[in-house]
Design goal:
With 457 residues, the chain is mainly α. 67% of the residues lie in helices and 6% in strands. The chain contains 18 helices and five strands. It has a five-stranded mixed sheet, sandwiched between helices. Strand 3 and strand 4 form a beta hairpin. Helix 2 runs antiparallel to helix 3, helix 8 packs across helix 12 and helix 9 packs parallel to helix 11. The longest helix has 34 residues. 26% of the residues are buried.
Length: 457
């Protein structure tokens, strides 16, 4: 489009301070998010639960929840600073051009004839860079799993399993990433200035492929799926699906407890053939009607077309990302600001473009969270209309206690970070009037925490 071409020409100005601008973006975002985290930390120092939860949550449980929230917040302060130092060091010390030159030398010296060119160079650069960043972040990952989560009873993994998952992830990244990245680069190289149309179509095809192949070939590498046994739960879920005309093909239980105490319940598949997966931890910690209530909320997203709407928004977002990339792909001033004076690799252009786009992505994140919270209220209302108001409220409270989830939130922090309303808001919308006896944390002794994640409850 002519407007994109003219915008590209306008932004490609010699001497434009792209490096300082992007560093400024990163620092501004870091300070802003730190400010929000500080506001939330003050909420986590409160000693009494919100009024809406006073009849539901015992003081002991609330204190544990606040302690867990503070521990996560403190870890977040450190990990975000660690990440910021990495980003600043990468830019300040010209890591990208240095690594690009180094991998080019490796390619020239050691690669067989025929394994040359930008695509092969990009693959070596990308996987080397990914390996380095993964190694740098190992201490953060280890502490999160084996110190923070272990302290509060969440971790069920072992060091051996953690390392195995890491190695499997790297292997999958190479096996799937190499052909996908090669195709991405080939499309840009061969389709001219309108490459973003073809990248968009390629992106849609990749998503459809992933929906099909992930549960068949990738998920079994990490977890075991078993058919849900006959019984009241299977009967209840199948009855719910039939009631909503949900095209249920199969019901599975996944062994999530092998790795973590967190739980999940989700569905996947093509429009005419869906599969529901329930974590064993969710079944273990909940009554049958509560699990069905959870799924009535999840299927509410399907029935109300939330998943379709979010998919459509994601496609629009992907298209405008690729279209804007066409503005920056030939921006010599951007490349030169980051030390690329002779070569202008496509992958480097995309990385730098992503950094320049960060402020816009922050706005998109805020708007998507607002929309997501709206959808969550609507899915809750859907479950209420199906007659699951009480069961859903009980399930939310139980999961809140078991997971030691944050009971309250600063409004600015929640608006920016939360894709789901906090528990007091949801209970109010459900019309929950409470019960006479408070939830007793002693009843949870010996049990591990659980939470519904993914398309979360």
């Amino acid at each position: 489009m002519d407007i994109l071409r003219r915008l590209g020409q306008y932004l490609d100005r010699p001497g434009f301070p792209w490096k300082r601008l992007i560093i400024g973006f990163q620092i501004t975002q870091y300070v802003f998010e730190g400010f929000l985290s500080f506001r939330q930390y003050r909420i986590l120092q409160q000693t009494k639960p919100p009024k809406a939860l006073e009849g539901e949550i015992k003081q002991e449980t609330f204190d544990k929840s606040q302690a867990y929230g503070r521990a996560k917040a403190q870890f977040g302060f450190v990990s975000s600073l660690y990440s910021q130092i990495q980003n600043f060091g990468t830019i300040y010390y010209d890591v990208l051009p240095r690594l690009w030159d180094l991998t080019g030398i490796w390619l020239y010296r050691y690669a067989p004839k025929g394994f040359t060119g930008e695509i092969m160079h990009t693959l070596i650069f990308f996987f080397t860079y990914n390996l380095i960043t993964t190694a740098i972040n190992l201490p953060i990952s280890y502490y999160s799993t084996f110190v923070l989560e272990e302290k509060f009873g969440f971790n069920k993994s072992t060091v051996k399993l953690w390392i195995t998952d890491l190695l499997k992830g790297q292997a999958l990244g190479i096996a799937l990433g190499a052909p996908l990245l090669s195709a991405f680069l080939a499309i840009v190289q061969k389709t001219g200035n309108s490459f973003y149309y073809y990248l968009f179509l390629f992106g849609i095809a990749v998503q459809l492929f992933a929906i099909t192949i992930y549960p068949i070939a990738i998920l079994p590498l990490f977890n075991k799926l078993s058919p849900l046994e006959e019984g009241a739960l299977k009967t209840g879920v199948e009855g719910l699906a039939k009631r909503l005309d949900f095209p249920l093909k199969e019901l599975f239980v996944i062994d999530g407890s092998k790795r973590s105490a967190h739980s999940n319940a989700y569905f996947y598949g093509l429009p005419w053939k869906k599969h529901i997966v329930i974590y064993d931890t969710l079944i273990e910690k909940s009554e049958t009607k509560e699990v069905v209530a959870v799924l009535s909320h999840e299927l509410g997203h399907w029935s109300l077309s939330h998943t379709t709407k979010l998919f459509g928004i994601a496609q629009f977002h992907m298209f405008y990302i690729f279209a804007l990339f066409s503005v920056f792909i030939n921006n010599r001033s951007l490349y030169q600001s980051f030390g690329f004076h002779k070569e202008f690799p496509i992958i480097i252009g995309f990385i730098l473009f992503s950094e320049a786009l960060a402020p816009m992505d922050t706005v998109v994140k805020l708007l998507m969270n607002i929309l997501s919270r709206k959808f969550e209220f609507e899915a809750d209302e859907f479950a209420v209309k199906l007659g699951y108001s009480t069961e859903l409220a009980k399930s939310l409270i139980k999961l809140q206690i078991q997971n030691l989830s944050t009971m309250d939130a600063d409004w600015m922090y929640a608006s920016y970070h939360f894709s789901h309303p906090i528990l007091p808001e949801r209970l109010g919308a459900l019309g929950w009037l409470g019960k006479e006896k408070k939830a007793d944390p002693s009843a949870m002794d010996g049990q591990k925490p659980s939470v519904v994640t993914g398309r979360e409850l």
